[in-house]
């Protein structure tokens, strides 16, 4: 009966994938539907063999992979991946690569262990009380307090989060935040920050909303004795840069059509990156795309190198993997205790 229904309802790889992962019960996939698939990758992929002795740590890697899948595929922000969203993505092709590529870090989409390592280290660094959740004060310390308090408040307002736990971000939400913060050209990132800046939810970033976020940037620069640009001048620059279809009103489609969204968003809520942009040609961002890597992939590669260097480095990839394993092993017992306690509550 199962295979009869599979044949009757599925006409391509995408529909078959959804049918199999959902056990034929749904026409879409939710977070837990991916658990068996990614657990099998952890259990069987040669690039993750060093994790075999730490089964208690598998859940973090699995959560990261699935969160990245939803980040890239779930265009509707519904928490349910449709057959069409699978069909429009590279997920199935990436899964096929797992069969032939023994180096898990060579698969940059979704499954890279190095990317996971960077994301989780950032999370652990901010989570001061190690309750596995990020508070507003935790997030405020990200990248040396680079983000404005107003944009952080918007993140915690529910504009871009699925479910706050006692007013805190879950690890899944943090994955979405970090990728969005480091790759503001990604369509999901543009949607993420647009939702944050669109205070009244009318589908437009108005001049008032831009001024609201820019005010805090100006105050920060004044405290640092940095010359500031009057808002009207800044506004003219931003409108010229994005060139919205409707004068004075920036819509999501305007930002997605622009190649300079990184500069636009950083201007309004990331002072450190804003100042970095100010010191170079505004259009140099267009020339930064080397080796076909995304902004997040470049960020993860640089961060990983620094993290490994801090721990003494390694001569081979296998050695680096073992270093990562022993670094995490130090915290495994404590993490397991906290994770188990949170499940009992």
TrEMBL record:
Entry keywords, A to Z:
Calcium, Metal-binding
The record, for InterPro entries, names: EF-hand-dom_pair, EF-hand_13, EF_Hand_1_Ca_BS, EF_hand_dom
| Example GO molecular function | calcium ion binding
Note whether Calcium occurs among the keywords. yes
Organism encoding this protein: Helobdella robusta
Does the record's keyword annotation contain Metal-binding?
A: yes
Looking at the record's lineage, which domain of life comes first?
A: Eukaryota
Which named protein is this?
A: EF-hand domain-containing protein
